[in-house]
Design goal:
Layout lengths: L4 H4 L14 H14 L4 E3 L11 E6 L2 E10 L3 H20 L2 H17 L1 H10 L5 H26 L3 E3 L7 E3 L6 E5 L7 H12 L3 E5 L5 H13 L7 E3 L4 H8 L4 E7 L2 H12 L7 E5 L7
Parallel strand pairs: 1-3, 6-7, 6-9, 7-8, 9-10
Antiparallel strand pairs: 2-3, 4-5
Length: 294
């Protein structure tokens, strides 16, 4: 049988949505969105260096004359420093255990819900989504955080008993692999970005996250809230930028795995880059292709 959503997340957690047809919900939300429409957002590396990278404007996709904010691209030095921090913190983050990592992911889910209006504003203005699409995006991101929190508890809280055919005791302990890079697309700039990062974090990996170059602002807000929830900044680092930043990230020998959603062509390039590194074989999780008739 297929578990219903309420049986997947932690007991007692209520999955929250927004009733867009109810004036008591819609009118205050529209007022908030009107105020947030004036806000300018920024996305920059989690630990910005003094020598700044290129700054690019982020405009509304449906009206490119309107600037929503700016993206400050990561430099090679910042990528190198990010790996130093991620490698250093990963053993301690892994040793924290599944239960404590789950609590942090659940707190991040709570903060995402508290900041729904900001996410909806960015979904509309940065990603060009409708209001209903934005609501679905936020709910999916929250669901990812709570789902991977439950998986952290289930799979990483202690040894898992295995069969003992001859009477021996066999157990399995699972741990993070090291530093994971997540490279997410523009079409689900919050949900997929959050799902990739939360899965890697739940498993005890430190994460270097590069959002799509078109939608870094919503990712920056997501990372900020994760840090406020208690996830160490060194364990989850944002490195905005275009394809050249992705190349810097995936070519580093300290990288142990990549989770990617995007084009098949880019996935092949990542695979080739990983294969050409002077380092251990890295995992590549790639969701590629697409069915866009246009």
């Amino acid at each position: 049988s297929v578990n219903l959503p309420m049986r997947i997340v932690a007991p007692g957690v209520k999955v929250v949505g927004s009733l867009m047809t109810v004036p008591l919900t819609l009118v205050p939300l529209q007022q908030q969105l009107g105020i947030l429409a004036q806000k300018r957002w920024t996305a920059e590396p989690t630990f910005p260096a003094e020598d700044a990278g290129e700054i690019a404007p982020i405009t509304m996709p449906h009206d490119m004359s309107v600037e929503v904010g700016t993206r400050r691209d990561a430099t090679q030095d910042e990528v190198d420093a990010a790996y130093e921090r991620a490698v250093a913190i990963q053993p301690g983050w892994d040793a924290l255990g599944g239960e404590r990592r789950a609590l942090l992911l659940e707190e991040a889910a709570n903060l995402f819900e508290e900041h729904t209006a900001e996410f909806l504003s960015l979904c509309q203005r940065e990603a060009g989504k409708t209001l209903l699409d934005g609501v679905a995006e936020v709910r999916e991101a929250v669901d990812f955080l709570r789902y991977y929190a439950s998986e952290a508890r289930r799979q990483f809280s202690g040894p898992i008993a295995l069969p003992g055919p001859t009477g021996e005791e066999n157990t399995l302990r699972m741990h993070g692999r090291g530093v994971f890079a997540t490279i997410s697309p523009w079409n689900f700039p919050l949900a997929i970005f959050t799902g990739m990062a939360s899965a890697a974090l739940a498993a005890g990996n430190s994460v270097i996250a590069k959002p799509a170059e078109q939608t870094p602002l919503i990712a920056a807000l997501a990372v900020k809230l994760c840090h406020e929830a208690g996830i160490p900044p060194e364990a989850l680092q944002l490195l905005p930028g275009a394809g050249d930043v992705g190349q810097m990230i995936t070519s580093d020998p300290r990288l142990t795995g990549v989770a990617f959603t995007g084009s098949t062509e880019t996935a092949r390039l990542i695979n080739q880059t990983l294969a050409g590194r002077d380092g251990p074989i890295a995992t590549l999780i790639a969701e590629t292709g697409g069915q866009n008739a246009m």
